[in-house]
Write a structure and sequence with these properties.
About 40% of the residues lie in helices and about 25% in strands. The chain is of the alpha+beta class. Helix 5 packs antiparallel against helix 6. The mean pLDDT is about 90.
């Protein structure tokens, strides 16, 4: 397969040599699927047996509230894992949807092939399972961070929680966010106009500075 180099950077294959990744993909019967922009990778209410790795493109996981308003749960980029927790819960219908936001390629792996005993009893398969458990833990922490953001009481608190998280990940007080203003408003579950007003106020107050998608958080 042509994505071995990209897969070696994914946490699912931590400490697995590139040559062994190829063998694991054959053992787990992984396949690549292409999705057009706005096409659903997972639909709400669907039974999920496979999890995925985004090899190219971008996407988002989302759901709708009682009023029909769309809420973005997580954002997906190259290397993101998809449906890891859903696939591990056999017979459970997905409470959310996963949608490609641009043309994307996803490698899909059957969960039952990960937990099944390898015919060759190879140590690399055990390593894959251990890595999968670590990915589950990472996903749990990501959801915890997401909940913290949504629970912030004010628009300013929501914005700062998100910006600080991106800043930490890029290890820089000056950073670029991957969201348009509309998507940022959806992600923070606030109105687009409220987001624009508060960003302007925060800039005027000297808390942040920004130009388009480039941001800087004031020190001190």
């Amino acid at each position: 397969m042509s994505y071995i180099k990209e897969l070696s950077q994914v946490s699912l294959f931590t400490q697995v040599p590139p040559g062994e990744i190829q063998e694991l993909l054959l053992c787990t019967r992984a396949i690549c699927k292409n999705y057009k922009k706005d096409e659903f990778i997972i639909e709400e209410g669907e039974l999920v047996a496979n999890f995925g790795i985004m090899l190219s493109g971008a996407g988002r996981t989302m759901k709708w509230d009682a009023s029909g308003r769309q809420i973005i749960i997580t954002l997906l980029e190259k290397g993101s894992m998809i449906g890891v927790m859903l696939a591990a819960k056999e017979g459970h219908k997905s409470p959310l949807a996963v949608q490609a936001t641009e043309d994307s390629t996803v490698m899909e792996i059957p969960f039952n092939r990960v937990i099944a005993c390898c015919e060759k009893n190879c140590p690399r398969h055990e390593k894959l399972l251990r890595n999968y458990i670590n990915v589950l833990a990472e996903k749990g922490l990501e959801l915890h961070e997401r909940i913290n953001c949504l629970l912030e009481p004010t628009v300013r608190d929501k914005i700062m929680t998100y910006l600080r998280r991106v800043s930490r990940r890029q290890n820089n007080a000056t950073f670029t966010i991957p969201l348009s203003r509309n998507t940022m408003a959806e992600y923070l579950n606030i109105e687009r106009s409220a987001l624009s007003r508060e960003l302007s106020r925060m800039k005027k107050d000297g808390i942040i500075d920004y130009h388009r998608n480039s941001f800087r958080i004031a020190q001190g």
